[in-house]
Amino acid sequence: MSPSAQYEPEHSILLVDDDAGFLDGARRALLAHGINNVTTLQESSQALFTLSTGAYTVLLLDWVMPDPSGADLLPEIVRQYPDIPVIVMTGVSDLENVVSCIKQGAYDYITKPLDSTRLVSIVQNAVNSNELIVRNRKLTGYLLGEPLSNPEHFSEIITCSEKMFSIFKVIETLASSRQPVLITGETGVGKELIAQAIHRSSGLKGKMVTVNAAGLDDTMLADTLFGHKKGAFTGATESREGLIEQAKGGTLFLDEIGDLSNASQIKLLRLLQQNEYYRLGSDILHKSDARIIAASNGNFQSLLNSRTFRNDLYYRISAHALHIPPLRERLEDIIPLAQHYINKFAIALRLPPPRLSAELRNSFISHDFPGNVREMINMIHNAVTYNRTETLDFEDFPGLAPAATARRKIVRKIGASQFALHGIFQGFPNIEEVEALLVEEAITLSHGNRSIAAKMLGVSRPTLQKKLDRTPEKRSDDDLE
User: Fold this and answer.
1) Which residues span the domain enclosing 106?
2) Does residue 230 share a domain with residue 142?
């Protein structure tokens, strides 16, 4: 489907550039592709006021303009209007400049002279991003009764999942607590991102310091955490403070804590119980005020049963406990995450972001992702690096099963000896009944938005309308006439 076919008329685009001729050319390029609601602004000093007077979906902002420049405006626009994707337009094809834009909060960039195909594609991607943000907010309010107090604390986590939004709400309730938090979940689900969100929500002035406990023996971990005194061991030619000191007034994040040796667990238990520790080779007691967040992909019930992990330490670190669901339990996150990392790696490689083919989207949703988001990141990074076409396809993802094969696998998983749809229909359903169920569910999940429902079903909007017109209820009414 072409970008113009996906575009909805209610979306409003704002173009800001001091060159009147350029503005007219860009506006005409968008109009030619069916993007009609375009506002142009030549006076950059009026940008913030204009944004305050209208509901704009996307902003295209020139980087080099008379006072104020795009570089001056971007931080304030991002602060005041965090939901509006900002596409920076620059005549300088400079990676350093692009990286600066992205770090300051720009959604993407485009270089001059503009390529109309690239312009329309990037605007459509930004529109889709804005739609996702709006839906996320509505979904959060629906699930939790009220929006998050500080959604910016979770801005680095790409999600549409009800389960994840529930976790965000729990994190906000822990903002004032300084008790330890234990985050569990499979490898690659994003436990460190959750720890960062907890730290941001806490309001602590110090920084978050990360220690990966996996593979560290007792001495190495103690030296890393607590530091050492000069002469404490061979090679200790000078004293060194540990990471716990660097986390003063902030958060100490202990990743893979389930791998700690028993001796290391005892040292950590003292730190948690009394907020104090000794550097290696020193008898001077040091105090710590760092908040502790721990994470593990281990099964703590098994670790406790086997006495591999101390009960007293477990109860200390799990004053608050959060479990992050794997990606296969939040399928709605797969395509937004994939699109996010495609754009990210394409920008880093200075390439136009390729699209995911419809077949590949279905296969992504059907894939188990045993390595979760980390596995997806590796797959997409490899695919974008070597792809030189406008579309990512199966040849870019070796080993990824076609959607039909994956779907058959999912049906078999649901019931080993019973066809899964028997749980929904009284008898064996026909194709029309299954199709009607899918259409009804898509309409429900999209809150009646037929464009979104059509995308979920993988059909065009006119095709969805025809299917709605052919529902059993509709045919019954027609038969009575």
Assistant:
1) 1-147
2) no
